[in-house]
Amino acid sequence: MATTLPWNFFTENHEITCSIILSTIVAFLTYLVIPSFFPALLNAGLKGKDLGKLEKPVIPEAVGVICGMAYLVTLTLFVPIEFDVISQWLVSYLGGLLAICWMILLGFLDDVLNLKWRHKLWIPTIASLPLLIVHYMYIERTIVVLPPMPDFFENIVVQIVSNFIPGFVYSNTVDLGLLFYIYIGMLAVFCTNSINIYAGINGLEVGQSLVIAGSIITFNLAHLNVVKVSAYMHLSLHFMIPFFMISLVLFSYNKYPAEVFVGDTFCYFAGMTFAVVGIIGHMSKTLLLFFIPQIFNFLFSVPQLFKIVNCPRHRLPKLNTETGLMENSYTDKFKLSGGGLRGMLRKIIVTVFRVTGLIKVREAGEDMVECTNFTLINLALIWLGPTNEKNLARFLIVLQIVASLLAFGIRSDGYGLAGLIYQK
Questions:
Q1: Contact status, residue 34 vs residue 237, Cβ threshold 8 Å
Q2: 331 and 259 in one domain?
Q3: Tens of pLDDT along 250-270?
Q4: Distance (Å, rounded) from C-alpha 280 to C-alpha 93?
Q5: Do 236 and 200 fall into the same domain?
Q6: What is the reported pLDDT for 233?
Q7: φ, ψ of residue 60 in degrees (nearest 5)
Q8: Does a structural domain hold residue 210?
C-alpha cells in the first residue's frame, strides 16, 4: 500500500486536481454566504436552544441544507470536467448524485416536519433506489467474499453440510442475488441513521463525518495505482473531496461554541454520501470498518431503540448549571424486575451492562431504578467523569480517529488481517 504521493501526482491526475480546486472555491464561497441565511432560518422557525450552554442561546438550525446544496453544485459542475461520453462511470456518478439529492430533500423535510423514527427508517430506503437501479443495470455483481476458514474447520463444515447436500464444496464466495440489493438498502439506512443517533453535542456530527471522509480519501489515494480498483478509487474521490472541503466549512460554524446546528439534513446527507461511495466504489466492507464507533453506538442503543429499556425522547448529556460541566443523562425510572420475556431481557441487559461498566444504575424509589442512557456519549462521560462540552467533543473525535487507525490496521496487508476479511 502506497503511503506517499509523488510530486507529479497532481499533474498526472488532473481530474483530482480539478476536484480539489473546484471544491476549495465552492467551500470558500459557502463559508462566506452561510451567515446571510441566519435571519431567514430564524424567521422560518428553523432554530433551537443550545442546551449545553448556561445561557441556552437560540441559534439557526438545519444549516446542513445549505452545505448540501453547495455539494450538489460542486458535483454537477464537475461532470463536464471528468466525463465527456456516456459510460458506466457517468451513470454510476449520476446515480450517486441523485441518491444524495433525494437524501438532502428528505432530510430537510425531517427538519421542517420533525418526522417520527418509524418514518426515518424508510427515508434512506427511498433515497437509495437510484443506487439499486444503477447497480442492477450496469454492475450486476451480487457476489460477496467470505472469510477463509482453517482447513480443520472447513473439513468439519463440509462433512456436516454434505449430510444434507451431497457433493457440497465450501467456497469463499457467495452469490446473494436479490439479498444483495436488500443489503445495499440496509447499508444506506444504517449509514444515515447511525450518524443521526450519534449526535447532540457541538461539532460531533460534522467532526465524525470529517474523520470518516478523511479516512476514505486516504484509503482511495493509497489504492489509486492498484489496477483492479483504480477506477473505483477515482470515482470515490470525486464524491469525497468536495464533501470533506464543504464539511470543513460547516465544522467551523458548528464546533464549540456552535453558531449553528447542522440539523438532520446533514446527518442524512453525510450518511448517504458514505453509502454511495461504499456501494459504487465497491468498498462497503472497508466503509463499515471506518464506522466502528457508530456500529458500537448502534448496538449499544438497541435495547432502548426497541423499547426493551426505557427510552426518553432525548438522550443527550445533561448540563450541570452549577459547575457548567456535562454529566450523564438518565432514563426515566422503571421497574428492573418484571414479568414476561421483555422484563427478563431488560433485567439481563441492565445487569450485564452495569457489571461491565457500560452504564450506571441508581435507585429511584421502591423497586424502581434509573440508568444512564445507552449511548457512546454517555459512556464517554462514565470514563471521563463530568467534563465540559468542548473536551467531550474532542475526546469523541479522537476516539473516531483511533478507530480509523484500527481500521487501517485491519485493512492493511502488512498486518496479516486483511486476508481474513478481504479477497487479495
A1: no
A2: no
A3: 999 999 999 999 999 999 999
A4: 8
A5: yes
A6: 94
A7: -65, 145
A8: yes
Q: Whose grid coordinates read 481500521?
A: 407
The verdict on 226 and 318 lying in the same domain is no
Burial class of residue 66 in the structure, from the number of CB atoms within 10 Å of its CB (0-12 exposed, 13-18 middle, 19+ buried): buried
Residue 127 lies in a domain: yes
Same domain, 232 and 317: no
Burial class of residue 184 in the structure, from the number of CB atoms within 10 Å of its CB (0-12 exposed, 13-18 middle, 19+ buried): buried
Distance of alpha carbon 27 from the chain centroid:
22
* Strand pairing class (334-335; 368-371): antiparallel
Is the per-residue pLDDT at 415 higher than 50?
Answer: no
Backbone CA torsion sign across 406, 411, 416, 422 = positive
Q: Is residue 27 part of a domain?
A: yes
8 A C-beta contact, residue 187 and residue 275: yes
The single-letter code of the amino acid at 311 is C
Count of H helices and E strands in the chain?
Answer: 19, 9
CA distance to 111, 165, 197, 281, 286, per residue, from 192 (Å): 14, 40, 9, 18, 17
Q: Which of 255, 290, 325 is the last residue of a domain?
A: 290
Give the pLDDT band (50/70/90) at residue 2.
Answer: very low
pLDDT surpassing 60 at residue 236: yes
pLDDT tens profile 311-366 = 887 888 999 999 999 999 999 888 887 677 888 889 999 999 999 999 999 988 77
Phi-psi region of 53 (alpha: psi -120 to 50; beta: other; left: phi over 0): beta
- What is the DSSP secondary-structure string of 153-211? HHHHHHHHHHTTSTT----SEEE-THHHHHHHHHHHHHHHHHHHHS--STTHHHHHHHH
Given a cut of 60, is residue 418 above it in pLDDT? no
Contacts of 74 by beta carbon, 8 Å cutoff, 6+ apart: 22, 23, 26, 242, 246
What is the span of the domain harbouring residue 24?
Answer: 10-142+177-290
3-state secondary structure at position 145: strand
Those residues with Cβ within 8 angstroms of residue 142's Cβ, 6 or more apart along the chain or in another chain: 175, 176, 177, 178, 179, 180, 181
Q: Could you give the number of structural domains in the chain?
A: 2
Q: Is 227 in the same domain as 93? A: yes
Query: Residues near 360 by Cβ (< 8 Å), separated by ≥ 6?
Result: 328, 354, 371, 372, 382
Cell numbers describing residue 216:
476514505
Rounded CA-CA distance 169/161 in Å is 9
